[in-house]
Amino acid sequence: MLRRNPNGHMPEVAESAFIDPTAIICGKVIVEDEVFIGPYAVIRADEVNEQGEMEAIVIKRGTNIQDGVVIHSKAGAAVTIGECSSIAHRSIIHGPCEVSDDVFIGFNSVVFNAVIGKGCVIRHNCVVDGLDLPESFHVPPMTNIGAGFDLNSISKVPPEYSAFSESVVSANHTLVKGYKRIANEL
């Protein structure tokens, strides 16, 4: 469902994107080409800063936002999800936040007030709060990263996790095409 926010902004959705009918996309949200947004996802850009302004939430080309994901932002701050990234089931991305290209964020993880570098893999049940991750970092399952965390203790992404991330993106591109075809048949 596409909804206007209290400031009157309506989401902008590329024709080639697929948004499940149970998802809610509200306000100043830009959804680019070939994006998949799964069931019960909520992407809501409706808060303003002290000047009454807000930045957009942008979901870039080829990215998949899976079932039950919540993307929101505090005080109108920007949120960008890069190209060909995967935000897995029930994760929360809360702005201000930037997720770069080719990132995988695992099930039930939370990212807040951070920049996630290109090619990072954040596994399931992780929290990244207020600390930026450089390119190609692997965050093991159930890891909490915040102020004072030693990033040198995190390894680079192993090849098998990069391959897994790429396979998730590919599978969701297939879903976009399939769901768009089904929608056209109705």
What does this protein structure show overall?
- With 186 residues, the protein is an alpha/beta fold.
- The chain has one domain: UDP N-Acetylglucosamine Acyltransferase, domain 1.
- It has one helix and 19 strands.
- Strands 1, 2, 4, 5, 7, 8, 10, 11, 13, 15, 17 and 19 form a twelve-stranded parallel β-sheet that branches.
- It starts with a strand and ends with a helix.
Unreliable sequence segments = none
Using only C-alpha atoms, the radius of gyration works out to 16 Å
Describe the largest sheet. Answer: 12 strands, parallel
Helix content: 10-25%
Counting DSSP E segments of at least 2 residues, the number of strands comes to 19
If helices are DSSP runs of H or I spanning 4 or more residues, what is the number of helices? 1
**Strand share of the residues?**
25-35%
The name of the CATH architecture is: 3 Solenoid
Shape: globular
Reading the helices and strands in chain order gives: EEEEEEEEEEEEEEEEEEEH
Instruction: Classify the fold: give the CATH topology.
Output: UDP N-Acetylglucosamine Acyltransferase, domain 1
Give the end-to-end Cα distance, rounded to a whole number of Å. 17 Å
* CATH homologous superfamily label: Hexapeptide repeat proteins
Class computed from helices, strands and strand pairing: alpha/beta
The CATH first-level class comes to Mainly Beta
Total number of distinct structural domains: 1
The average pLDDT value, as a whole number, equals 92
